[in-house]
Amino acid sequence: MRNAVAWALASIIGLAACDTSTPRAPAVDAAVDTATDPPIAVDAPVAAVPDPRECDTPDACAWIEAYQRDVIGRLAGREEVSPGVMLAHRASVAERTAARVYLRDALAARGLDVRLQAYATGQNVVASLPPTSGTAAAARIVVGAHYDSVPAGPGAADDGTGVAIVLATARYLADLPRRDHPVDFVLFDQEEIGLVGSAAYVAALRDEGAAVDSVHCFDMVSFDGDGDGAVELWSPSAGLEDLYRLHGTPRGIPVHAVTFASSDHQSFLRRGFVAVGVGEEFVGGDHTPHYHRATDTFDRIDFAYLGRITRLALDVLADRVVD
Questions:
Q1: How far, in Å, CA of 319 to CA of 5, rounded?
Q2: Which CATH number does the domain housing residue 179 bear?
Q3: How many CB atoms lie within 10 A of CB 36?
């Protein structure tokens, strides 16, 4: 999730500024990202290919919490992201490259078709899951989160948690016996300096003329200080609020729709796509006090809360992917 200084930088490249959060030091990563990533390792040890039908429902997925702990541990510097490499943050070219390689290989290890979408200053990770019925020309569903962080800290909450939701969703949806829509799982680069990666992905969608069913972006799902289990929907398009409430109510998850533009969902809304941002109560004030700080670390994450919201996301997306 970006901040005011990030928006100032974003305005230089033509993006509108609208965030008023606490200023931070300028990003150290404005240079062109010229790092070359190694070939995809389809047998990467980061995640084993799942056994057939790991779980039939989100509640039966006992692997979620342990899997997300592993993902966030690697992204936030608790464990090596690759042999001999520990991440301190995900803001520099070198650290974003290391994170990108890990994420690319993790998605490839699930059997997904993974590509890197390069633009002038960075690269998005895009993994495509085809439908099991119909045609690949059916309207696609986009599930996204940003993988960069601010230089101040390791970004466990912002946005290691969103990335962990996307990876868990890829693992779950890939195992569904029926999918009527193709799904793109997209991990955006450079959200923190003005939604740059998501804007590049959206521009490519428009150029392609792709039909898009809906876009679901996850950003900061780490903290529930008042214990009510609530989740915010940021500027949801018509119909998506009802869909999240439909699945949130039986789970006892309060769903609050608010107006908020400071995350990747806004790139899609600007261009007319059906989209929503999903996060902890950032607008409502019940959000992590470690936002954009050095203390945004693994041990500050409420993994039980993250697991509950992940299962809500799995309900919603499994519903949406089947006509």
A1: 38
A2: 3.40.630.10
A3: 5
> Has residue 300 been placed in a domain?
yes
Let me know: does 127 contact 183? Beta carbons within 8 Å.
Answer: no
Establish if 14 belongs to a structural domain. Answer: no
Please give the Cα distance from 305 to 216 (Å, whole number).
19
pLDDT at 1: 67
Question: One-letter amino acid identity for 131?
Answer: P
Range of the domain at 239: 27-321
Cβ(280)–Cβ(221) under 8 Å? yes
- Output the DSSP codes for 229-291: --EEEESPPTTHHHHHHHHHTTTT--EEEE---SSTHHHHHHTT--EEEEESBTTTTBS-TTT
Specify the number of domains making up the chain: 1
- Those residues whose C-beta lies under 8 Å from the C-beta of residue 57, and which sit 6 or more positions away, are none
**How far is 149 from 137, CA to CA, in rounded Å?**
34
The tokens for 265 are: 């969902």
Which pLDDT tens digit goes with each residue over 273-308? 999 999 999 999 999 999 999 999 999 999 999 999
